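During the no-cost extension, the postdoctoral fellow (Dr. R.K.) reprocessed legacy sequence entries with the updated structure-token encoder. One reprocessed record is reproduced below for audit purposes.
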Amino acid sequence: MLAKNIQLENTVLMNTNYGTTDQGIILAKVREDCIQKEKRIEQLLHDYNTISNQMAEYLQENAYLRQLSNVPANFGLKRENVKLHDMKTADDLKKLVKVL
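Re-encoded structure tokens follow.
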């Protein structure tokens, strides 16, 4: 809807000689950039929502598995203290997997 309105405005600006032709071209480019950025924001929002939903499902599954195996919710490492970028070798990651 926004894109159609902008295209219509651009056509009116070019046909009525409102301002100079250069200003109309610059305005059209700025509006096109705005549309592209708006689409990028929508895509990022979609990606964020998808990842957020997956994380919620994982946490729900984790809670269910902990309940089935009688593991308390506070058992194990604190998630805040686990930073994968600090670990340098695959052995460290394997040890972490065993602990979790």
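Helices lie at 2-16, 21-68, 90-99. The chain is about 75% helix and 0% strand. The remaining legacy entries will be reprocessed before the final report is submitted.
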